[in-house]
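Suppose a colleague, Dr. K., hands you the sequence of a protein chain of 360 amino acids and asks what its three-dimensional shape might be. Before reaching for any lab equipment, you can write down a predicted structure in token form. Begin with the sequence itself:
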Amino acid sequence: MYDQPIKLLLVDDDEDEYVIIRDLLSQIDWADFELHWAPTYATAQEVAKPGDHQVFLVDYRLGEHSGLDFMRWLRLEDSTTPVILLTAYGDHDLDMKAMRDGAADYLEKERLTAFVLERSIRYALDREKNLTLLRKSEMQLRLLSSKLIEAQENERKLIARELHDSIGASLTAIIYGLEEAIDSVSGEQAIQLREVLSMAQETVEETRRISSNLRPSILDDLGILATINWFFRQFQSLYDSINIEKHIEVQEDEVAAPLKIAIYRIVQEALNNAAKHSEAGTVRVSLRHTEERLELTIADNGVGFDPATLFHQGEPGTGMGLDGMKERTELLGGSFTISSKREEGTVVKASWPLSFSRPP
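The predicted structure, expressed as tokens, is then:
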């Protein structure tokens, strides 16, 4: 038994239906109901305010509109109130479409009884309660995942700085010492010292490479656009058989700060995957604004693959894989897709709303 009346909104242009629904509700004894009535689609939009009702009972036919139109409008308003669609006739295809679009139930008016209505309302309320708990759990998981990724990036940044500033500086000092020592000896000793010097110089280069892969300092110093250009140069020095077509159509200040590392990691992972697996000759990288979203697309003309079989595999050292790219995108309120077919190449696409803000 509910402590407070359950507030329902009936959206139907027939007043007789309001009377029928009211009478059926009076026969249900496990709760008290407060039924409101909106005779038109426009009226329903005016009174369907968030939190005012616990269930909407909506006629499928609403003049020029339909119950499905009302459900779509509710989604645009970020309403999670469950909707029970009512119809004068049964239609299996319409029933399935309504359920796919998110209706809690689909009832035929001619077969409507107090028992059927009570069961449908109870189911809708229980479903919404469970969905609320699920959304809360998902929000908590997103928050934890976001903090984990942030901690990972901070750790990478710290290690990269230590490699560059501490180990890199020490190796540089060793190189200077070896160069001075070489000038003071000759013969076999000089040859041996030159070999050691060469090894030290190679170690410096490898340390710089590892540091840059962990967290390129240019990202923090100059931003995402400079970092992308730097990464393309580094990439093509390693894979000169792959041509990169770059289409960057945004300005630095048009990319929100939290998105910058995500964009870099996705570009890094996608290009490394293309180099290792695609056999592509060309990779096209696009970063642009559409009317409502910031959109990143990486497309190659390679051999393609089955995304379902490789979705969890990432290149060593990136800690990502395709599922990692998806997670980074969605944690920042974006959407991620990957499409690929054998011999038809691969397209990776991540996009975020222009009204982007940090996840809670």
